[in-house]
């Protein structure tokens, strides 16, 4: 039975479907010895030989693993990066499976980051049509007034497109009002979205941390450390 090449790559634990499309476009995938760059190519896993970076792949994926990492600032979520900055995978030791991040956290943002080799789950959690709430704690410059908070909640225009409605509430204010701490909840995953939304209401982010994905909470996991998800947590993610 034929299936799309990017789906095969995801099931083989190479990358998420979306990332697999980038790998195909970059010419890193061969089918029967031929480099494939176009999207939507279908293969027969039982007959066709698929290679990634010269290594033959099997349809049978490695054991599925699911991790939660407390990402520190100063790490990128890509596996390879042109400036040579440290990557989140550098923090993972003793996990033989080829895992990849679920979505991204900015270089200068800390907090909850999921990693797995389950391409289908990654696709569902990162696809725009699936509304998975992400919760952040942000330290902002200044203190937004009621009008600015309402503007944020209704959605603001960033990169020429309005964001979906979001949640924001002030948790604390510094005495001199130079900074405040807020809790923010969004369900989109646009590039640097929280930072850009805060800039749009004229209160830029000084510090940002993701504390939850849906009902999955970071808790007291130390920065730079990771743990395996429980069976209950995995079941919850698959139910989203």
UniProtKB/TrEMBL annotation:
- Gene3D superfamilies linked: Alpha-L RNA-binding motif, Pseudouridine synthase I, catalytic domain, N-terminal subdomain, RNA-binding S4 domain
Q: Which InterPro entries does UniProt cross-reference here?
A: PsdUridine_s_RsuA/RluB/E/F_cat, PsdUridine_synth_cat_dom_sf, PsdUridine_synth_RsuA/RluA, PsdUridine_synth_RsuA/RluB/E/F, PsdUridine_synth_RsuA/RluB_CS, RsuA_PseudoU_synthase, S4_RNA-bd, S4_RNA-bd_sf
The RNA-binding S4 domain is annotated at: 3-62
Q: What is its EC number?
A: 5.4.99.-
A Pfam family that the UniProt record links to this protein? PseudoU_synth_2
Coiled coil spans: none
- Looking at the keywords, is RNA-binding present? yes
Say which enzyme class the record assigns: isomerase
Highest taxon above the source species: Bacteria
**Record keywords:** Isomerase, RNA-binding
- Family to which the UniProt record says this protein belongs: Belongs to the pseudouridine synthase RsuA family.
UniProt-recorded name of the protein = Pseudouridine synthase
Species whose genome carries this gene: Anaerotignum lactatifermentans
